[in-house]
Write a structure and sequence with these properties.
Structural class: alpha+beta
Radius of gyration: 47 Å
Distance between the termini: 124 Å
Low-confidence stretches: 1-51, 740-749, 754-800
Largest sheet: 10 strands, mixed
Shape: flat
Number of strands: 44
Amino acid sequence: MRASSRRTGGRRRMLGGGAALGALVLAALTLSPQPGQGLDGGFDSAALAREETQDPVNAAIVVDVSGSLAAKDVERERDAAERIVVGEMSNLSRMTVLGFASADNDRQSPVDEVCPATTLSGVAREKLSDCIGKLKSREQDEGNGTDFPSAIRQAVDRLGEGEANVPRVLFLLTDGLLDVEDSPIYGDPKDREANGKRELAEALAEAKAAKVQIWPLGFGKADGAKLKEMAAGAFQGSCANLPQAKPQARTVPDAEAVGDALQAAFAGARCLVSDKPVKGTPPTDVQLRISPLATLASIVVSKGDPKVTVTYIDPLGKKIEPGKHRDGSTFTLAGEGKNVEALRVTDPRPGKWTVHLDAPEGHRDKLASVGVQWRGSLRSSISMKPTAPRPGESPVVELQLQTRDHQSITNREDLDRLRVSATLSGDGFNPVPISLADDGDGEDRKARDGIFSGTVKVPGTANGALKAVGVLGAVGLTADHRPFPTRIGGVNEPVRADIKVSDTTVHPGEGARFTLKAENHTTTRRTLSLNVVDTAPGDLTLSRRDFALDPGESITEYGTLRVGKKTEGRTLAGKIRVVDSAADAEVLEETLVTIKVVPLPSVSERLWRDYWWAIVPGAILLACLIAYLIWSWRARKMRADPSGLVLRLLVPHGGGHREGSSLIVSTGGVVPYRFEVVDEESDDPRLEPRPSSGGYYLRRGPRGGLLRMPGRAEETVRIGGSVMLPGSTVQLRIEPGARRGAVGGGALRRLVRLLDGSGRRGQGGASGQQQRPGATSGSAYPSSSGGVGASSGSSSHPDL
């Protein structure tokens, strides 16, 4: 213990020198451009990308391996540690993995250095992943307590060996409480508990002096309150001044949730955005979203089984090939073939990514977890109206945040991550905070359009220069702080200008109309120049840029803000600036613009848009014509339908003819009607309906029935008339039968039969019905001589 105190004193002296060096570095950073900011205050995306990929951390993962942990609990701890090692974004980061329990005799050590401190090159990640697999719970005779002070001190020593200006973070995983009752190094048995608590407080103080954050993670019987004391007792510096980035303790009910919890804690410590992991059992597809704000992302897959294979597919449906470059992105895979693997992507394509999990038979029972952690950067553009406010006036300040490719941020999920404000500073007053919102209330033009607005009252003591600067407070996101420099305005400005943009949704190559109003109250001719700033080259251009103003003149001019031809599907952001070229390019007006570029409509959509007034009546006329043609066709078909007619055979008999077989025609809508004469050469020929094979065809014509017999052309037979069958002395007569077209049709005929009580059957069927010789059919009736006579064809009922 005394040796430990001596080491602590030495470390403190080293840290004192490190703090002085850190102060010099901080001063140098304050005087130099910030990450992502060029020498002119502009946005340098290349510098920011370099800074992101080289932003290292010095981390120690300290894992409880006391005998109280079951094998599956240690397996979950190993999985959690692998997620951190494999998923870390910077190859310059340094990782140490320690296992700890207690030393219950002189031959035991409370801490096992499972993985010595290693810088995360590609090969080193694979080696660390292998050595993490050596973590195992201790047996009863290997030291079975929980010695927090020794574990923290060992981790602080190892973290102190790294660079002084690199953040130092200790992640502590445990399932229990401080337990050193069997550890001789803590003195007499009766004093060990008190000594352990005192040593823990001293170890936390040493961690605080060494600027080591502690993020405890407890499960099982761990005491959440004690873990919070550990987090609060160590160093409280963080990567951002946000609550989620401050060291904090987490507790989960069991070891199953340790991996997700540690990954979330690591994201908080690294100022990364981390969404809740998605789980699934292979084979399956897991979808996750990468925000357009992201400039560096890591997709971490805890497979549950090393035999699980992973395929990564970007939002365009293209399979990712690690080690390749595509569309400005680079892809690096770590942990392939291990239990945990991660794909790191620089400048990832935003949208829905698909992670396909597969596994051979026998390896599909483990639940896999897929998560994404990322960090992003934003551009900013700020304006103030009026541009040069007077003391006591309340100008409107607008701040627009853009993605790295100058697109406006309009997605609800992305906007909810942002906390935006601004400050107003200047001569004659202390800085004033400005509250900004994108809720559509007050001075904000439209809710969730990516432009945050607010008002600020210029102090009455302001007497010179003014400057408004936007401030972003969001974990995992950095923004260039673009200032808006201006000055106190006079009562009557000599030259004034106002510009507005009307349309905000256009097609590629088209544009939105802008209106410029300006006044010149001077005695000299002025030229106003318009420029588009804070946008990518070629995305937004102006059709007119220079406007002349004679002395005393007021103008209202129009122009077009055009979008590039290759901007389809993007929401472009920028700012139109109006300057007075005759007054040292004094800024008269600035306005933020957001232009949504939608795809060109199809030919049919353009026709409808331009000629709907002609298409609608034309469609109505066409529909009427089609309806008339259908009605005409159906009417012709109905007129040709011979249903209701009666066919009767006249058979030679005693120098004359007698009535033979008859058939009531019922086509069922199939025209012409087909039938056949059976046993034509016998004394008793018959008529039979043959819908598919009959040799006789019958339909109605304008002067009667149109009949076609075998071997003959179609001929007209008047109703009531007869015709000789081919090669025979038998005649076929066509009788009128029931009239067609009576109101109600068949339904009315059935009703009449019911009313007159006849209810007779056997007078027709679906395809016509044959009548025996001598029986009545339709208009047939018995003759006085006992034969069969026929009426003129009318039905027995006058209406039928």
